[in-house]
Write a structure and sequence with these properties.
The protein is an alpha/beta fold. Helix content is 22%, strand content 28%. The structure holds NADP nicotinamide-adenine-dinucleotide phosphate (NAP).
């Protein structure tokens, strides 16, 4: 059910509609808590960028990220979760009368579950901003078909970089994975797949110092991190996959964050403020997977129910 009326009171407002927020919504709705989930982009969040999710239990053949998001949304709303597509402008914590402001109205809520996720980290080199949409991308699933039979590079050595490289290899003629060290941190299964893909080549111990072109990306300036040797690489596309930054700016000064800006909680997903919980990729934790995000969401909903019954 999509939200209609404005300026309502809720027991729980969930900020963010990725696997963490949607699962929190599912559990809250099944506990008959009057709950609103607010998402600023697309239901499913960042998982919708995944062409195939192969490690979410229950889908032995894998499932597209978009479909996974849609299914959790459908499941949660079938139990009465209300959802609203808009951005949260401001939150004012005030015990059981917290205010959540959006352009669609202000909501008073007894508790809040922060599930605002993270956004792509930028390389921060000259040319990156200038060539966004002109050869620089942060999403292979979105842009890979534009690079059919061309050479592209993926920057990074984690799960995202290797997943992006594997997807790009279906389109591009050559995929260079440029990593600042000589060892990947990606999942071993992904590494094995990438090493076995003839179109993928690894360029180790190397950093990008500049992205150059003339209207469109044409080449990368590279520097070997061990011997400082400089080189260039001619290509058409650069996919930056070097991790994420938490969407936690509006909580700075209100809640304790770690040095990278992730919100600190205990194992019950409780933040320092009673009744305010944080889950998924915005939370300081060790594993950032759809399934661990979903687990956080379930835990927070159970904690919220206990808090509301006090
Ligand atoms: P990540 O695991 O943090 O890896 C980031 C990679 O980028 C690292 O290899 C890092 O190098 C490199 N890097 C960071 N800053 C850099 C910079 N300024 N210049 C050059 N390289 C830089 O990030 P991720 O791969 O986006 O994954 C994020 C989280 O989502 C992880 O927990 C991951 O497991 C999860 N994820 C899971 C899947 C899946 O299960 N299929 C898919 C995508 C993401 P170092 O190795 O030297 O630090």
């Amino acid at each position: 059910m999509m939200f209609q009326a404005m300026d309502k009171t809720y027991q729980v407002v969930i900020i963010g509609g990725g696997p963490a927020g949607l699962t929190a919504g599912l559990y809250c709705a099944r506990s008959r808590l009057n709950t609103l989930l607010i998402e600023k982009g697309i239901m499913g969040g960042q998982i919708t960028n995944a062409e195939r999710v192969e490690n979410y239990p229950g889908f032995p053949k894998g499932i597209s990220g978009i479909e996974l998001g849609q299914l959790i949304h459908e499941q949660a709303t079938s139990y009465g979760l209300e959802t609203l597509l808009t951005e949260v402008a401001k939150v004012v914590p005030n015990q059981k009368h917290n205010l959540v402001s959006t352009s669609e109205g202000d909501f008073v809520t007894e508790s809040i579950i922060i599930a605002s996720g993270s956004q792509f980290r930028k390389l921060g080199v000259p040319g990156e901003d200038r060539f966004v949409g002109r050869g620089v991308s942060y999403c292979a699933t979105c842009d890979a078909p534009l690079f059919k039979a061309r050479t592209v590079a993926v920057i990074g050595g984690g799960d995202s970089a290797v997943t992006e490289a594997l997807y790009l290899s279906k389109f591009a003629s050559s995929v260079k994975v440029i990593h600042r060290r000589s060892q990947l941190r990606a999942d071993k299964i992904l590494q094995e797949k990438a090493m076995a893909e003839p179109k993928i080549e690894f360029i180790w111990d190397t950093v990008v110092t500049q992205i150059e072109g003339d209207g469109l990306v044409m080449q990368l300036m590279l520097k070997n991190a061990k011997n400082a040797k400089l080189s260039t690489l001619q290509l058409a596309g650069v996919f930056v996959a070097i991790g994420a930054q938490p969407n936690s700016a509006q909580w700075r000064g209100l809640l304790p964050l770690d040095e990278e800006g992730y919100i600190i909680t205990n194992e019950l997903m409780e933040t320092k403020i009673p009744g305010i919980f944080a889950v998924g990729d915005v939370r300081h934790k060790s594993a950032r997977q759809a399934i661990t995000a979903a687990g956080d969401g379930a835990t927070a909903a159970i904690s919220a129910e206990r808090f509301l019954s006090l």
